[in-house]
Amino acid sequence: MLFNSLEFAFFFPVVTIGYFLLPHRVRWAWLLAASCGFYMAFVPAYILILAATIGVDYYAAIAMERSEPHERRVWLLASIVVTCAILFVFKYFNFFNGSAAAVASALDLRYPVKMVRIILPIGLSFHTFQSLSYVIEVYKGRHRAEHHLGIYALYVMFYPQLVAGPIERPQGLLEQLRVEHEFEYDRVVGGLRLMAWGLFKKVVVADRLSRLVNPAFRDPHEYAGLPLAVATALFAFQIYYDFSGYSDIAIGTAQTMGFRLRTNFNRPYASRSMPEFWKRWHMSLSTWFRDYVYLPLGGNRVSTPLWIRNIYVTFLISGLWHGANWTFVAWGGLHGTYMIAGKFTASIRDRAWRWAGLDESAVRGVLAVVTTFILSGIAWVLFRASTLRDATYILASIGSRVPAQLHSILSGSARASDLIAMGYPRPMMFAVMLIAAVEVAEFAQTQGDRRRMLASLPWFVRWTVYYAFGAMILFYGIFRRTPFIYFQF
Amino acid sequence: MDPLRPQTTSHLGAPINTHAGDVRRFAVKASLVLITLLVVPLVSRVGDAGNVFHSQEYVSRIAEKLRSGYNVTGVGDFDERLLQSEIVRDLNIAPELVVLGSSRAMTLSSKLLGRPLTNTAMSGASIDDLFAAYQFYRRRGFRPRTILLCLDPWMLNEHYDDRRWRSVAVDAKAMRQTLGVGPSPVHGLFGDLRSRLADQLLSPDYFKASLQQLIPRARHQDAMRATHESVNAEMTRLTDGAITYGVSYRDRSPAVALTDAKEYLATDPIYGLREFTSITPRRRAEMLRFLKLLRTDGVDVRVVLIPYHPLVYQELAHSRRYVPVDDVERAVRGIAAEAGTRVAGSYSPIAIGLSPADFFDAMHPRDAPTGVIAMKALSARN
Question: Chain B closest CA to A219's CA: distance in Å?
Answer without folding.
Answer: 8
